[in-house]
Design a protein that fits this description.
heterodimer; A: mainly alpha; two-stranded antiparallel ribbon; 11 helices; 2 strands; 2% strand; B: mainly alpha; 12 helices
């Protein structure tokens, strides 16, 4: 419990900032949907409230914000502590390095799950206030997609935080790698592999999404999500392996 | 010495950023055959370069994020690492500490903006294509002008917030700014206030859409406003640091 509390204290500011940004943006998009819809889609017809919510949230700014900022929860850990000269205290605790990493991962994944659920709760909760409604099932399905893909991104950044001694270097490398990987995975020739996280999260160009109704169709794409889970686990195993062999002099 | 200190603190980020941008530009040019084949409609080479490098969703966005990262650092992270006491004990004013860091950061973002301008014409020529050197350097002016504002936003945030919070907050400020310039009617009527479009030239009077080239004089007035904003943000960062308490 103490290790989890430690991991929570280290990431709480980032988590609270991210959660408030996601929830705030969703609330603004719902409460001012008439005005925003009129401004954004002045030239494009968005006939339904569901289409509007999808455009601004699940395929728009909120997804962008989540994709870019949620992996930030993966940074930190012993390398950061080394820079702050507190690694000695942490390593002196009667727990293994893997336990330290595991606590950080569990807390981080839980935070990702909570942030993934926020759009569903805010949008479905606030929509009746503006005489509109968004299907809970759709929102929760998107939450599942976001949570799994977000966890994969988080795991990649955890790995970077273990490998690189400077946080800024880890941040720069992660962001640059994400930028190029996202572009590469969205290329038409690579698309059939279904690895582009932007598409998985929004459903765009995916077999489980109907572009005419802007809704997810059929069951949750288990195979696609399993690949993301395997990617996440690979990064975490690699991070644990590196951490075990690291010298904290 | 202060400049050297600021350089040492940011050089890894700067070098990584330069390599990334150079890599991106090289890929755009070297793989132009296959990348252009995937486009829905054929386009002139200059337009392809513009859409891959200078347009939104192109390398321009990468540049902006890298510039944001160059703005991170300063005395607050040093406090967390327990080294702020040494820095503050140096026989120089806080004004000089912060101003020097700002100057080094601005110099780095300028060099970073030069990477595409140096690479694109040379690599293009190597492959038998042609991209105007003049165009590339005009974009450097636009990138530096607007990138400085982005840098200075992160710079101010870094004097107030912790490392990660600085990154999150400055990123969100940019996101909100980008939304506001499109959603608020008063701002939406003045496209020159949108620094993202100013950088790419899209929908600007000095931009020719057919071949995606800059025509006519550069928008010096908006660029001067951007320079003014940068100065104001850096001055704010200095003022905050001068009055900050470091226990």
């Amino acid at each position: 419990v103490k290790l989890w509390y430690k991991a929570w204290r280290e990431s709480q500011v980032r988590f609270l900032l991210l959660a408030s940004m996601v929830a705030g943006l969703c609330a603004v998009f719902v409460l001012f949907h008439v005005a925003i819809n009129a401004r954004i889609h002045a030239s494009v017809a968005v006939p339904t409230y569901v289409g509007y919510i999808y455009g601004v949230t699940y395929a728009g700014s909120v997804r962008g914000l989540f994709t870019l900022l949620s992996p930030l929860l993966g940074l930190g850990g012993l390398q950061r502590e080394r820079a702050q000269h507190t690694d000695g205290f942490t390593l002196a605790l009667p727990v293994s390095r893997r336990a330290l990493l595991a606590a950080r991962v569990v807390v981080g994944v839980l935070q990702i799950v909570v942030v993934s659920l926020l759009p569903a709760m805010v949008i479905c909760g606030l929509s009746p206030l503006v005489q509109a409604s968004y299907p809970w099932l759709q929102a929760l399905q998107f939450s599942v997609l976001w949570a799994v893909v977000g966890s994969a991104g988080f795991a990649a950044w955890v790995f970077a935080s273990v490998v690189f001694s400077s946080e800024y270097t880890a941040l720069t490398v992660c962001w640059v790698a994400s930028f190029f990987a996202a572009r590469e995975l969205q290329r038409p020739s690579v698309r059939p592999l279904h690895l582009a996280w932007n598409y998985i999260m929004s459903g765009r160009n995916m077999p489980y999404f109907d572009a005419r109704t802007d809704q997810l169709i059929g069951p949750i794409p288990i195979e696609i999500l399993l690949v993301q889970i395997v990617i996440a686990l690979s990064f975490l195993v690699a991070a644990a392996w590196v951490l075990d062999r690291q010298d904290f002099a | 010495m202060l400049a050297y200190k600021a350089w040492r603190e940011s050089r890894t980020r700067f070098l990584l950023s330069s390599v990334s941008l150079a890599w991106g530009c090289s890929v755009v040019v070297l793989m132009q055959g296959s990348l252009r084949a995937e486009l829905h409609a054929p386009m002139p080479y200059s337009k392809y370069i513009w859409s891959a490098v200078y347009k939104s969703n192109g390398l321009r966005d990468l540049y902006l994020v890298l510039v944001l990262m160059l703005g991170l650092g300063g005395l607050l992270p040093e406090r967390a690492r327990g080294t702020s006491g040494f820095t503050l004990a140096l026989p120089v004013s806080r004004f000089r500490l912060v101003a020097t860091r700002a100057m080094v950061g601005l110099a780095e973002l300028t060099l970073l903006a030069c990477v595409p301008a140096v690479l694109l014409p040379i690599v293009s020529q190597w492959l038998g294509e042609w991209y105007s050197t003049r165009q590339a350097w005009q974009f450097v002016v636009l990138w530096v002008g607007c990138g400085s504002v982005v840098f200075s936003v992160a710079f101010v945030c870094s004097t107030l917030l912790g490392e990660y919070a600085t990154w999150v907050v400055s990123f969100v400020i940019l996101l909100l700014y980008s939304a506001l310039v499109h959603l608020v009617p008063v701002l939406a009527r003045r496209p020159m206030l949108d620094l993202f479009d100013l950088m790419s030239g899209a929908v600007m009077p000095y931009f020719h859409d057919a071949d995606a080239t800059l025509r006519g004089p550069l928008p010096w007035e908006p660029l001067m406003i951007m320079a003014g904003l940068t100065s104001a943000f850096v001055a704010t960062a200095i003022r905050i640091t001068v009055h900050q308490e470091f226990p």
